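Q: I'm writing up a methods section and want to include an example of the input and output format. Could you take the sequence below and give the corresponding predicted structure tokens, formatted cleanly so I can copy it straight into the document?
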Amino acid sequence: MLFPRVQPLEVELGCGDASFLVAYAGLHSERNFLGVERLLGRLRKLERKGRCAGLTNLRGVRLEAAYFVKYLLRPGSVQALHLYFPDPWPKRRHWRRRLVNEAFPPIARAALALGGTLYLRTDDAPYFAQMQVLLDAAPGFQPVETPAELAGRLTDFEREFQARGIATLRAAYQRVG
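A: Here is the clean output for your methods example:
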């Protein structure tokens, strides 16, 4: 068993320096949190920060996010997917490498429990527009507001961007019928 208690699961895809996930997991002991990160150094930060905070509801997995969501998450097992500041791959020829592409909405929908939510944040307006177009057109999703408590929890990238005057673009989509 991955967690000591069976409780709702939230997953952050690309957990960066883990500041968001550790703080959020610390506030919500009634949920389990899983950070998915490709880079070993970042995953070690997650483990170290979680251990120092005494969190038993936090774990990390070193893997590509798209593969993890598609092949390793049980259908309907996730209450929330958090995707904050994914690599925008700004050159048009690289757009196929973006995590949120045509293939992403159905795999995210499959992983989410009914009523579960996909939370998105980015500073890249063209990528944000692409995310919204894809998810607005995807069956089984409806746009919802990001709760204030969640919106107030900043990631490491978000703090850095805000200090430079760069706005955060946010969207949330709930899995429906």
